[in-house]
Write a structure and sequence with these properties.
This protein has 181 residues and is mainly beta. 6% of the residues lie in helices and 24% in strands. It has a single domain (1-30, 54-181), classed as Tumour Suppressor Smad4 (Sandwich). The protein has a five-stranded antiparallel beta sheet with strand order 3-2-1-10-8, with helices on one face.
Length: 181
């Protein structure tokens, strides 16, 4: 399916707003500390400079019209009845806790993922256990498809990512699941 996951930081000029640009994964929070500097001495260059990672990541979840249209062109007749929702407010989710699950609530057991795409308008292309965002040792995040029915793509890729293989995310990446998210 086509769910668009956008990570954007809270904006210092818009504390409750969307901040950053929409439509991508992983915008660092403005003003967040990017590297510890507890030493009063100047630091010497290291053999291998590690890229500085944001300390706070935020996912913006909502329908992506471009992804939906591309998915419809690739799909067979079974997708003919799908329509992009006329109204679906974006959700904001601060990533934390080491991992964030993405999917749809399982009504029979009540199991609910951290990012639940069963809320109206429910994205019919999202599996119950679709994907997981996993925090990396450097503070960044990776997406891992959980062998979902319709796959997970990153940055508009034609082919879904390989199941159970973490794909590191960078500032501005777009992760798609389902028919439009």
């Amino acid at each position: 399916g086509d769910d668009d996951w956008v990570l954007s930081p809270p904006s210092s000029t818009d504390p409750g707003g969307q901040g950053g640009q929409g439509g991508g994964y992983g915008y660092p929070q403005p003003g967040s500390p990017q590297s510890p500097s507890s030493s009063p001495f100047p630091q010497q260059p290291h053999q291998s400079q590690q890229p500085q990672q944001p300390t706070t990541w935020t996912a913006t979840i909502g329908p992506d019209r471009d992804y939906f249209m591309a998915m419809m062109q690739r799909s067979g007749p079974e997708a003919a009845g799908l329509n992009l929702p006329a109204y679906s407010p974006e959700q904001q989710r601060t990533l934390g806790g080491g991992q964030v699950t993405i999917g749809r609530r399982r009504h029979s057991t009540g199991d609910t993922p951290d990012i639940d795409l069963s809320v109206p308008p429910e994205d019919p292309g999202v599996s119950h256990q679709h994907a997981v965002l996993v925090q990396q040792p450097d503070g960044g995040w990776a997406v891992v498809d959980q062998n979902s029915t319709n796959g997970t793509t990153v940055n508009g890729g034609e082919e879904p990512i390989q199941p159970f293989v973490p794909v590191p995310l960078q500032d501005g990446d777009r992760v798609h699941v389902g028919a439009w998210t």
